[in-house]
Design brief:
This protein is α+β, with helices and mostly antiparallel strands and about 250 residues long. About 40% of the residues lie in helices and about 25% in strands. The chain has a domain at about 135-215: Alpha-Beta Plaits (2-Layer Sandwich). The longest helix has 16 residues, at about 5-20. Residues about 170-180 have low confidence and may be disordered.
Amino acid sequence: MSGHNKWSKIKRQKGVADVKKGKVFSQLSKQITLEAKNGGDPAMNPALKLVVEKAKQVNMPSDNVEKAIKKGTGELEGGTIEEVLYEAYGPEGIALIIEGTTDSTNRTVAEIKHLLSKNGGRLGETGSVKWMFDRFGYIEIDQKGLQVSEEETEMMIIDAGAEDFSVTTSQPPLSEGNIKNQIIVVYTKPEDLYGVKENLEKKNLTIVDVGFEWKAKNTIKIEDEKVHEKIEKLFEALDEQEDVNDVSSNLED
């Protein structure tokens, strides 16, 4: 199994800029509100706990977190947040799954359609793309500072209940210099994500990111640089759209 798709790498590289724009805070607020509908106590709601932990990682103010939770539990107004998933095609017919959270599905779908059309893509029908992907949970572990061998690390991951893992390279925030870190990406069944995460934490492994992603069953290789530029322009446009949280594609790294 290969590592994260191309978009995952772009997301990591653009992370600092997103935080400066405040987009991440807005995204996380909506995700917290959405998950809090199933219970406002992170200790009893693993999905909420996961998003709250991400909010802490990017230094989201605790007041913002509490307000978002109260919106989800109904203690404050403004909790009408929905998950959205769009199946689409990009330049050269690459398959895309676009996920987000929104307080206005009509606005969001109209903006997504516009961005796709402007950048050589189009929205697909329900079921037209999803069959090309499998859904996984993922956990990123920083290899830096590991005190055990690769074989021991592999055994820890397997014993934790993971399905598979791979090694990829992550670009840290600019403030930390341009040294690339080796990241172990652990894959789980979606329903096993929270349990595997807890098992890995008990082994004192440094977890830097956790979430869900769609992985293409088969990838498309495009060597034309001009086409690649068009595709990355589309990715960047989708990244700028505030309601979009994740984009998965079948483009080969």
